[in-house]
Amino acid sequence: MTETPHNENKVIGEISSKFKIEAKLQRERRIWVAADKESLVGLCNFTKGLGFEHLSAISVTDWPEEGVFELTYHLWSYSQRILLTIKTRIDRADPVIDSVVPIWKESAQIHERELHELFGVEFEGNQDLAPLFLEDWDGPPPFRKDFNWRDYVRERYYDKADEREKTYCE
Amino acid sequence: MSEKRLIANEQIAPITEEGTEYDFYFGPAHSGSGNFGVKLKVDGERIISARADPGYLHRGFEKLMEYRVPIQNAVLSDRLCVLEALNWNLVHAEAVDELTGVEVPERARYIRVLMAELSRLQSHLIWYGVMSLALGFDTGFKVAFGYRDYVLDIFEFITGGRVYPAGYICPGGVRKDLPEGYREKTMNLLRQTEEMMQKMKDFSNVVFARRAKGVGVLKLEDALRLGATGPVLRACGMKTDVRKDDPYEIYDELDFDIPTEKEGDAYARCLIRDREMEESIKIIRQVLERMPEGKVREPEKITPPKRVKIPEGEVYVRNEIARGEAGIYMRSIGEGEPYRVKVRGPDFLHMIPVLEHLLKGSQIADVPAIYWSLNVCPADMDR
After folding, report:
1. What is the pTM of this model?
2. Which of B55, B63, B327 sits opposite A134 (nearest CB)?
3. Which residues of B touch A (CB under 8 A)?
4. Are strands B37-43 and B46-53 parallel, antiparallel or unpaired?
5. CATH of the domain spanning B61-382
6. pLDDT per residue over B227-269, tens digit each?
7. CB B332 within 8 A of CB B341
8. Where in chain B are the domains?
9. Which of A105, A128, B71, B115 makes a 20 to 30 Å CA pair with A47?
């Protein structure tokens, strides 16, 4: 059985003292931090220095009523064996955020490219935000909450004249 | 017209003045996985650059899950990767369990690990099959798929489904208890798998070493930068495994090793998988020995799904699946359906940045060896 260094509190302490933000321990090996948009890149740089060299994933959560996109960066440290999640909120009407490509390179690049396509978030500094999955797509970014895919499919793909497809069209 | 469509319809680029540069399209239909293409820019036999072209299997699971309750999503999670449905079942179930805070019965946790390791075995057998096919070794392909069918027989026996277990590993435990006689059948399967592994050893020097040694070398610093995980990362010398580093279910109570190699080439990735199968067999033996009695689901009675709410909160769970690190971020606002599900598949990184990096500078003839040594699955990349 491998020994686990329990460094959660040390990481929390280092982050809170450097950035004056609150980091909370969810459970063993899980730390969550909320940062504002401006300090994100600085914080990411700092955490990479702490050993969080693996960017596991980036995700966007859409909150249309509050008018924000919430971005979550899930970072893993191979040496400390801790998962750190950094959350930040950006304006939904002007979804621009600095890219973390300079920090995590290609692995960040591809996550940002995907989120740009599915949520329409602009990552400033990411050179390649070309379409990834969707072919000939002219609708809004489809993973946003206000995109109704049922209506979209009904309008585009069902044949209203076809008797058998009436249940879907109406 | 989008950039992508242009690529698909593009004619072979005109011969340049030097007369040797052209575009070469690998996929989207090829043996084994299919549904994924790479556009190669080639100079003679040498690849100058590679650009991955995903999307052929994009089904929008993350969005679909926002409209469904966990018991439905458990079934959907099968389809995240055709080649290892039970492992993805487990990732999803763990995310929901962590949100609901349910105490999964001990027997269910053992069954989950048993199924996850069997799934890893059959996934590695598929990999062996398609890797053989890629190297022009058809016998290996047929033998491996034959032996994989024995694992599928067990899946059918236990879950009712051969490839898709229909959400057998569900939130709260597993759908139903193990049928009578599972122990003997599984032990028999392990003997058959060991027989196959002996065959793999006998074959390896003839085919694999000659075609895969020194091909597609990935350095450790590149692997970390490109986001490689699992066997691909371990083949570069990094000793890491989510089952050990971030243990889930009962993995911290089990005794197994993490195989690593140093070379980082396609052959090292082959060796890693061989040895991982041995470790999986070791784990399954321990699980069978220690399998406790008790219930397999909490709560035992299935309530109508619409009445079950997921408590508010957010989690990020990670599992080690056959291909690498699998993760699910789940956010709930206290409704029956999750508010947001983000699926992190290992092949999203392996098939785009890692593959593009490895193909650059290699020979056309090595493309299949590199591609299959990564053991890719377009389904979990596209989701």
Report:
1. 0.87
2. B55
3. 1-5, 54-55, 58, 60, 62-63, 224-227, 229, 238, 240, 244-246, 252, 255, 314-316, 318, 325, 327, 329, 331, 339-340, 342, 344, 348-349, 352-353, 357, 382
4. antiparallel
5. 1.10.645.10
6. 899 999 999 988 889 998 888 889 988 989 999 988 888 888 8
7. no
8. 6-53, 61-382
9. A128
